[in-house]
Amino acid sequence: MQEAREQARAARESLDGISATATARDRLLSVTVDARGIVQDVRFHTTRYRSMAAAELSAAVLETIGRAQEEAAEEMRSALAPVMPDGIDLDAAVEGHSRHDEMLDAFVRGCLPGQQDATAD
Question: Superkingdom of the source (predicted)?
């Protein structure tokens, strides 16, 4: 049990450090997201966006956010795979499409029963 708690603690700590940055294919902008895919930063590298059609700019921003979210999700999968119990579809849980997604979210936030106790050791 102690080994499982240590693995869970290590996975939780590695999740805290996960972020991913994607750059648009044309280098117009970069987007950084956290482990949950929430946008943390958007940086424009040129002023070309000022003359772009709204639909074109929107497409570039959304595509770049999506690529950053995919990278963060992959890092999250890698961090969680060693500690996930058998029978849980990790991909579905990470993407929020399983009956375990609430449990996974609680784990990431450190809210599962015993997690506070585990960090006190």
Answer: Bacteria
Tell me the C-alpha distance between 73 and 33, whole Å: 10
Residue 25 CB-density burial (10 A; 0-12 exposed, 13-18 middle, 19+ buried): exposed
Range of the domain at 38: 2-120
Question: Which among 41, 7, 39, 38 is positioned nearest to 105, based on CA atoms?
Answer: 38
Q: What CA–CA distance (Å, rounded) separates 115 from 8?
A: 9
Radius of gyration of the chain (CA): 18
C-alpha span between 66 and 80 (Å, rounded): 21
- Per the DSSP assignment, residues forming a β-bridge with 30 are 23, 43
- Per residue in 32-79, pLDDT tens? 999 889 999 999 999 999 999 999 999 999 999 999 999 998 988 888
Confidence (pTM): 0.68
What domain count does the chain have?
Answer: 1
